[in-house]
Amino acid sequence: MDISSFILLLFLSQIPYPCSSVTYDYLLKGSFLSVEKPSDVLVSANGDFCAGFFSVGENAFSFAIWFTKSSNPTVVWMANRDQPVNGKASRLSLLEDGNLILSDAGRVTIWTTSTASASSLQLQLLNTGNLVLRTSDGVFIWQSFDSPTDTLLPQQLLTEDASLISSRSRSNYSSGYYKLYFDNDNVLRLLYNGPNISSVYWPDPWLRSWEAGRTTYNVSKTAVLNVTGHFSSSDDLKFKAADFGMGVTRRLTLDLDGNIRLYSLDEVLKNWVVTWQAIMKPCRVNGVCGPNSLCSYDHVLGRTCSCIQGYKIQNPNDWSTGCESEFNISCNSSQFRFVMLANVEFYGYDKNYKQNSTLQECEEECLKMCGDCKGFQYKFDPDPSVYSCYPKTLLLDGYYSPDFDGDVYLKLPKADISSDDKSDKEVMLDCHGEVLQLLSRTYKKTQENRSLKILVWFASALGCVELTCFFLVWCFLFWGRKNPDKAVHGYILAAAGFKKFSYAELKKATRGFSEEIGRGGGGVVYKGVLSDHRVAAIKRLNEAAQGEAEFMGEVSFIGRLNHMNLIEMWGYCTEGKHRLLVYEYLERGSLADNLSSAALNWEKRFEIALGTAKGLAYLHEECLEWILHCDIKPQNILLDSNFRPKVADFGLSKLLNRGGSDNMTSRIRGTRGYMAPEWVYNLPITSKVDVYSYGIVVLEMVTGKSQTNLLTVDGGGVIGQGGLITWVRDKVKEGATRKVSRIEEIVDPMMAGKFDMAKMEVVIRAALQCVEEDKDARPTMRQVVEMLLRRDWEDEHSMTL
Ligand SMILES: *[C@@H]1O[C@H](CO)[C@@H](O)[C@H](O)[C@H]1NC(C)=O
Ligand SMILES: *[C@@H]1O[C@H](CO)[C@@H](O)[C@H](O)[C@H]1NC(C)=O
Ligand SMILES: *[C@@H]1O[C@H](CO)[C@@H](O)[C@H](O)[C@H]1NC(C)=O
Ligand SMILES: *[C@@H]1O[C@H](CO)[C@@H](O)[C@H](O)[C@H]1NC(C)=O
Ligand SMILES: *[C@@H]1O[C@H](CO)[C@@H](O)[C@H](O)[C@H]1NC(C)=O
Ligand SMILES: *[C@@H]1O[C@H](CO)[C@@H](O)[C@H](O)[C@H]1NC(C)=O
Ligand SMILES: *[C@@H]1O[C@H](CO)[C@@H](O)[C@H](O)[C@H]1NC(C)=O
């Protein structure tokens, strides 16, 4: 469960909302449900759902359907989410003419089904959560399933006319800015529909529909989640719950944070568990932090927003309005300079695009553009291997990610940045940190202005729709012109063809599992050649304890992780008791195989340390489910032909030892010498265990000495106080007290003194911090990446070795 839904539950738990004593199975013509009687609710025959007045604020109610089996009621539908009614005299009435109306304070109709029927009718809540108006011959003349709010229940059709719209905030159920809908080209998309700007962010807007696995040809525009947890849409989008199968209660919800998630109910804990989600990187959702701000994500804090330098927050209670500049942009170029934000991307709104541009050319271009250029993106285009320049008119949807290979240069007045300490200027706030405001609906005697108000409201709603259309068309044209080719923008495409293999196929590929290339991590690895001639590393897992469905859920999750410093998974096999994983094969083998190679010079060692840190930072911070590696060692860091590192065997800790709720602590995992003290002392296991192991690996790379060997030589000291760490730390201390550098004595003689002293100091310092006994003293992997990326090593003399 992510943090936001956890907080959501916390919040909801403050409103006691039982589905009170069963009073109605159905409602007949001429009768009504009153807001004043909490017992006036319709209950489904199975008792899972209730329909009635739901409190959405002080003296404010919406007619809603909610799910009762979760520890807190989960609202799945609302009739009047945007216009709550008064807590006095409001009712839902089924009129004699067949119309169902919701009236506020007894007078004004807030909502109606606009139905008419001369025959007898009943309003009934079905076991599926569908509220229906049913005639005596069983025909539904109206059903709530036709007008979803933010949730789709199993068997409910999502259609062109029935899209999902997120709630405004945790405390406000009214229509928010995110929308899941079928677009004009028949593709199901996610749209950020903010007050001033609309943009589509899923599927990735720079992909053509077919590249995103969608088709535009089927005009039926329908999608459905079936009872076994399979979602299928007419645009060919298909996915399934990690726990797919019968007998699980599920819902698909467009959450506040702009992500769609499929949830399953944990029948024991009575909470919702995410079993699928559309967006893996929470900061890629548009409109999160508003203009001129940066989104960053971390599994502890969740998503956070901060203003960029030179800008200040507009409304501290609502990040969607973003930040405003503290200066005026003029055309006098001598008054401006540029400030780099490393690993930051601002998406879109490129006023221009210049391939193969130097930094200086790009700065000049931006200065020439005066107020039209707020800064520029400067990034490497792998094809054709040049740097490119993207001046930005707007700084929107900015995010920081250690694995993004590009920087942003902000245009700022020279005067403003003389004080270089910008960190204290940044405001860090939770993106959803809006204050809880209670809606008040006081009973008013004079209601005559009401209908006028509704009319005005309706007119402005129409106006918004028009504005949205305008913006959409504009974005479309803009994009169409500026991005003739997605390769120009050079973004990562999702790996194609993650596949399920049959056991026979893999047996053939490995020629009967004949060529063993590695062991450990729960299985034996064989080299094989797939039918399409790709060379693969095929891992056969020892334990088959995990059920097939669970295994497939985990594997497809791991298979979707794409990062240049993570080994790519091509597929898997699960057949009977066989569980196999198919990975790309790297000719050069592991870091362990190469540590004593003369080819491993200082530059390569540094790149390996940096790449490994980026891969782990991605695992720890970019993924919702927060994968711990738990077995970092040189054997698990593979090298490609250019000595670029790729972390292997991640996610295995999840695949192998599932089953108990205490799965993380029940068994010590990892490899002697690389294991953090937490394992030994039975302390909680967090991502810091990987940080520790990483630190050991870096120390080994720098010194050329093996931690495991030293341990054995020393007679096996307690892990954590092990030989290598003590040895390096002592040298550093000695250097500091005598004010002489001991670095030469630490560094691997293989490098023959050829290394960058300033960088080396940074690397050793980072590694020593990683292996601190106290997990809280260790940095996160992201902080390690930042330390290694600091470009001002030359100025650093704080550590004397
Ligand atoms: C749900 O959909 C999947 C895939 O389309 C299908 O295999 C399965 O049989 C369906 N389940 C039911 C109960 O219809
Ligand atoms: C279009 O999609 C619907 C719903 O998924 C499906 O039943 C139908 O067969 C599709 N039509 C074509 C021509 O593929
Ligand atoms: C929308 O634009 C108006 C006028 O430019 C501005 O005042 C307002 O703050 C903007 N709203 C947001 C949320 O950016
Ligand atoms: C920006 O320009 C406006 C109008 O010209 C002026 O009132 C304001 O003080 C200027 N702001 C700064 C920070 O110079
Ligand atoms: C540009 O700014 C500089 C420094 O503030 C000033 O000396 C110069 O006169 C300005 N030039 C113009 C054309 O305004
Ligand atoms: C990039 O520009 C430089 C200098 O203008 C030129 O020498 C080089 O060939 C260009 N590279 C490409 C790939 O166009
Ligand atoms: C909920 O959001 C809507 C739309 O932004 C706003 O008009 C309304 O006042 C909000 N309600 C509360 C209780 O904040």
TrEMBL record:
<dbReference type="Pfam" id="PF01453">
    <property type="entry name" value="B_lectin"/>
</dbReference>
<keyword id="KW-0547">Nucleotide-binding</keyword>
<keyword id="KW-0812">Transmembrane</keyword>
<dbReference type="InterPro" id="IPR036426">
    <property type="entry name" value="Bulb-type_lectin_dom_sf"/>
</dbReference>
<dbReference type="InterPro" id="IPR017441">
    <property type="entry name" value="Protein_kinase_ATP_BS"/>
</dbReference>
<feature type="domain" description="Protein kinase">
    <location>
        <begin position="511"/>
        <end position="800"/>
    </location>
</feature>
<keyword id="KW-0325">Glycoprotein</keyword>
<dbReference type="GO" id="GO:0016020">
    <property type="term" value="C:membrane"/>
</dbReference>
<dbReference type="GO" id="GO:0048544">
    <property type="term" value="P:recognition of pollen"/>
</dbReference>
<feature type="transmembrane region" description="Helical">
    <location>
        <begin position="454"/>
        <end position="479"/>
    </location>
</feature>
<dbReference type="Pfam" id="PF00069">
    <property type="entry name" value="Pkinase"/>
</dbReference>
<dbReference type="GO" id="GO:0005524">
    <property type="term" value="F:ATP binding"/>
</dbReference>
<dbReference type="InterPro" id="IPR000858">
    <property type="entry name" value="S_locus_glycoprot_dom"/>
</dbReference>
<dbReference type="InterPro" id="IPR024171">
    <property type="entry name" value="SRK-like_kinase"/>
</dbReference>
<keyword id="KW-1133">Transmembrane helix</keyword>
<keyword id="KW-0067">ATP-binding</keyword>
<keyword id="KW-1015">Disulfide bond</keyword>
<keyword id="KW-0245">EGF-like domain</keyword>
<feature type="binding site">
    <location>
        <position position="539"/>
    </location>
    <ligand>
        <name>ATP</name>
    </ligand>
</feature>
<feature type="domain" description="Apple">
    <location>
        <begin position="331"/>
        <end position="413"/>
    </location>
</feature>
<dbReference type="InterPro" id="IPR008271">
    <property type="entry name" value="Ser/Thr_kinase_AS"/>
</dbReference>
<dbReference type="GO" id="GO:0106310">
    <property type="term" value="F:protein serine kinase activity"/>
</dbReference>
<dbReference type="GO" id="GO:0004674">
    <property type="term" value="F:protein serine/threonine kinase activity"/>
</dbReference>
<dbReference type="InterPro" id="IPR000719">
    <property type="entry name" value="Prot_kinase_dom"/>
</dbReference>
<protein>
    <recommendedName>
        <fullName>Receptor-like serine/threonine-protein kinase</fullName>
        <ecNumber>2.7.11.1</ecNumber>
    </recommendedName>
</protein>
<feature type="signal peptide">
    <location>
        <begin position="1"/>
        <end position="21"/>
    </location>
</feature>
<keyword id="KW-0675">Receptor</keyword>
<keyword id="KW-0418">Kinase</keyword>
<dbReference type="InterPro" id="IPR011009">
    <property type="entry name" value="Kinase-like_dom_sf"/>
</dbReference>
<keyword id="KW-0723">Serine/threonine-protein kinase</keyword>
<feature type="domain" description="Bulb-type lectin">
    <location>
        <begin position="27"/>
        <end position="146"/>
    </location>
</feature>
<keyword id="KW-0732">Signal</keyword>
<dbReference type="Pfam" id="PF00954">
    <property type="entry name" value="S_locus_glycop"/>
</dbReference>
<keyword id="KW-0808">Transferase</keyword>
<keyword id="KW-0472">Membrane</keyword>
<dbReference type="InterPro" id="IPR001480">
    <property type="entry name" value="Bulb-type_lectin_dom"/>
</dbReference>
<dbReference type="InterPro" id="IPR003609">
    <property type="entry name" value="Pan_app"/>
</dbReference>
<comment type="similarity">
    <text>Belongs to the protein kinase superfamily. Ser/Thr protein kinase family.</text>
</comment>
